């Protein structure tokens, strides 16, 4: 038997920004599908009209795009499929796997008061069809009353639900709108979803959803309910632990490539591998590697992963990440001149930065224009003696080859002729070129800035 191709989906409710937990769920589904030549679909669960907003949908799409998770086809709107959900509910009623229920909210309330802690049993479940009134009705699933529903979960193992504890859930309300739980099953079936990877807060839903699959004779997808992400203290993640929205991580300057690596490790493991790229993650990712215990956010680890990815990235990829960071933080894009000065320095800069703002801070010398504004320390470094040395150095470097070796040799000669150490030259040079005293090496800066800009900055500082 040929194996059916893998189809996964991410099904966010558009009621706010993309939560870090949602981003991880999306990532797991994406990795699972992409690693198997399958499809990764996106469904916007916008049935709750009061809470769903187009802005939230937009934020979710932007978050996924920033994270680098591409989906197949157009995003599906669950709300737009309401007619199909109603159609299936009516077909089920005709087939007898569902039935019309005429109870009013007041009657249900009275029933509950008389039967505390019991799942509601509708009096219409086994009623004679000829007694049905001409009145609006909801369509309820005729769920099995006896036995158990077992979910063979790829993460949680076998999870058993007693059928007498599950009520006959409403599929279609009396106003003709589908319930969320019914819509999910119809959509997943119609979209051909083979694997449902989602938060374990949906585990009990899986039992009810499995009953709808069974009632329709549809193949059940593989369920994998993943534990939620916890904060550093092991408690459920909340704002007090720090960033919870994916956009916040983007604004903190973690590259998307690093976030993919870090989030993949949050609740999933492949031996002791901590640092990997997308190709490895796709090859390795499987449901068996997902842990049963909630993973904890660890910002130190994230920084470490981030630093590794920044250092390992090609210049081109790094510039793309920088552009995304600037956009995420509403900062102007780098100008052609800035890019021209920054690019030659990237090789050096990326070895030291753990986040993109750290990199931009070290890159400041390449991003600023003349005249360079000096901070207090830089001004102090430009004392009259140092300015004298810089003037000589300016003259001496007018005609040297603009290479590291020749620049180093020129600086060395200058230090010797003034009877000072190289450090005495480096401090005012940093001040003149960058306006501050902590910078990349002076030769790296000179090479990145080029002869004309370097000499112009030296001239400014010694004027
Ligand atoms: N819309 C649900 C949520 O955002 C997900 C439902 C599902 O994955 O089945 O939590």
What does this structure look like?
The chain is mainly alpha-helical. Among the domains are: 80-226, HUPs (Rossmann fold), CATH 3.40.50; 368-462, Arc Repressor Mutant, subunit A. It contains 20 helices and ten strands. It has helices at residues 20-34, 54-67, 82-95, 105-114, 180-190, 203-216, 246-252, 256-265, 278-284, 299-312, 315-328, 336-342, 346-352, 356-362, 364-367, 376-381, 384-397, 404-418, 422-434, 442-462; strands spanning 7-10, 39-44, 76-77, 98-101, 138-141, 148-153, 157-162, 170-172, 195-199, 222-226. The protein has a three-stranded parallel sheet with strand order 1-2-3. Strands 4-5-8 form a three-stranded antiparallel sheet. Strands 6-7 form a two-stranded antiparallel sheet. Helix 1 (20-34) packs across helix 9 (278-284), helix 10 packs antiparallel against helix 13 (346-352) and helix 19 packs across helix 20 (442-462). The radius of gyration is 31 Å and the shape is elongated. The chain starts with 6 loop residues before the first strand and ends with a helix. The mean pLDDT is 96. It binds glutamic acid.
């Amino acid at each position: 038997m040929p194996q059916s191709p893998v189809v996964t989906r991410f099904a966010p409710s558009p009621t706010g920004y993309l939560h870090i937990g949602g981003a991880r769920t999306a990532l797991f589904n994406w990795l699972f599908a992409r690693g198997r030549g399958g499809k990764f679909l996106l469904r916007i669960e916008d049935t709750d009209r009061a809470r769903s907003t187009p802005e939230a949908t937009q934020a979710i799409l932007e978050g996924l795009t920033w994270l680098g998770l591409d989906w197949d086809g157009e995003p599906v709107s669950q709300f737009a499929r309401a007619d199909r959900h109603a159609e299936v509910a009516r077909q089920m009623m005709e087939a007898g796997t569902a039935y019309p229920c005429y109870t009013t909210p007041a009657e249900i309330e009275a029933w509950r008061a008389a039967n505390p802690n019991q799942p509601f049993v509708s009096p219409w479940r086994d009623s004679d069809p000829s007694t049905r009134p001409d009145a609006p009705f909801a369509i309820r699933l005729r769920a099995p009353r006896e036995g158990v529903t077992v979910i063979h979960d790829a993460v949680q193992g076998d999870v058993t639900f007693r059928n007498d504890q599950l009520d006959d859930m409403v599929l279609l309300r009396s106003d003709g709108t589908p319930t969320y739980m019914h819509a999910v099953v119809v959509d997943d079936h119609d979209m051909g979803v083979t694997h449902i990877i989602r938060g374990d807060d949906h585990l009990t839903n899986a039992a009810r959803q499995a009953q709808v699959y069974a009632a329709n004779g549809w193949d059940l997808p593989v369920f994998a309910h993943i534990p939620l992400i916890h904060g550093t203290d092991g408690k459920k993640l909340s704002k007090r632990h720090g960033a919870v929205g994916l956009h916040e991580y983007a604004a903190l300057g973690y590259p998307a490539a690093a976030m993919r690596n870090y989030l993949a490790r949050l609740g999933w493991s492949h031996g002791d591998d901590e640092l990997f790229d997308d190709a490895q993650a796709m090859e390795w990712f499987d449901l068996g590697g997902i842990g049963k215990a909630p993973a904890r956010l660890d910002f130190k680890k994230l920084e470490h992963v981030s630093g590794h990815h920044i250092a390992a990235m090609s210049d081109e990829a790094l510039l793309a990440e920088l552009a995304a960071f600037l956009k995420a933080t509403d900062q102007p894009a780098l100008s052609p001149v800035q890019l021209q000065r920054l690019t030659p320095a990237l090789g050096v800069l990326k070895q030291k930065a753990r986040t993109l703002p750290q990199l931009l801070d070290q890159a400041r010398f390449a991003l600023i224009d003349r005249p360079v504004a000096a901070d207090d320390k830089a001004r102090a470094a430009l004392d009259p003696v140092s300015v004298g040395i810089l003037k000589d150095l300016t003259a001496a470097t007018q005609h040297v080859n603009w290479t590291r070796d020749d620049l180093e040799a020129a600086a060395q000669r200058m230090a010797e002729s003034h009877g000072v150490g190289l450090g005495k030259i480096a401090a005012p040079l940093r001040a003149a070129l960058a306006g501050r005293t902590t910078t990349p090496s002076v030769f790296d800066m000179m090479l990145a800035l080029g002869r004309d800009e370097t000499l112009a900055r030296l001239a400014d500082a010694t004027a």
